[in-house]
Each structure stands twice: as structure tokens, then as C-alpha cells.
Amino acid sequence: MQPLIDNARNFGHRPEEFARLAAGQSPQVLFITCSDSRVVPALITGARPGQLFELRTAGNIVPPHTSTHPTSEAATIEYAVEVLGVRDIVVCGHSHCGAVGALVRGDDLTAVPAVRDWLAHAAPRPSGAPEDPEVAEAVQCHVLTQLLRLRSYPCVERGLAEGRLGLHGWYYEVHTGAVRAHRAETDTFESL
Hints:
Layout: H1 2-11, H2 15-18, E1 29-34, H3 41-45, E2 52-57, H4 72-83, E3 88-94, H5 98-105, H6 113-119, H7 136-150, H8 154-161, E4 166-172, E5 179-183, E6 188-191
Parallel strand pairs: 1-2, 1-3, 3-4
Antiparallel strand pairs: 4-5, 5-6
């Protein structure tokens, strides 16, 4: 913890670098990714403060849209699209994902009921080789499922229909740093 505290103390010693951020934000991208500490959107993309609007959830899950029980995730997506006017949404899965791995292996999650119930939103259960620690194929399929789910959000549906919004599926390898993007033409994930 101490190195984090030391950095936080020094971080505020450059107010001129951050003064422009007080005027507001206008990110162009909503970046939806896993809560995993090894996935750092600004590091992966090189984004500076104000360039990415982030939504981090266990397993980069986008829950089903419902107007009767709004979720924090739905509010974040709606705000990004309707208020901030983001032009693109990236759903970024990653190798060695504990959430997707647990689903693929069929892990018993009774000891962590909130995790178990959250992962139920990932349906359908991703398929893949249970012994594969990278769970690459399963994560990539999971990313595509989350992109399909995003399309059911009214604000996303409108943005796509009006041509003002693009959706992108990415796969990040934590062990190499490589990023692959889904190509609809070939239905494969290829290097950026």
C-alpha cells in the first residue's frame, strides 16, 4: 500500500496538468472491461485523463437491459452514449480471466453467492477447454455475447441506427500485452 500512497502524494504536485480537466469531460470511447487488476485501460490504449469513459465489471459482463430495475452498468452506458456522446464502445476481454474460467470449468461458487449470481448474467455459459488457463476461445466468445447484449440497450440501438456509434470487441493477452480486435468479415480476433 505504501508505494500507492507515496505516488498519490506526489500526483497532485502538477496542478497545471490537470486544470483543464475541471472544465468537464468529452471522452470519445466507452471502454467496458473486467475489474481484473492486470487490465489497465489507460495503459493498454495510451489514453490520457478524459479520453476514456470506463465501465469495469467482474468478467466485463454487460447485464441484460431492463427498464424496471436499472443497474449501475445500464446507467453508465446510457450516460456515456446520451450525455457524453461517445462515438465508440469497446468491450475488452482478457486472457486468464477468472470469471470466464470459473464459468468454463463450472466452478462451485456457493461460497461467493454475489459472484455466482453476477456471473449468471454471462449466459450462455462460455464454452472452451477447462484446462486452458488462458481461456482465450471462451473469453472471445464471451466478448461477442456482451456486444450482442449491448445492442439491446435502447440508447445503443438508437446510436447504431443513426450511425453515430460503433461497437468493438477486443481481446487482451495479459501475458504478452497483445491486443486483438474482432473482425466481423472473418469472425476472428486479429492483431490491431
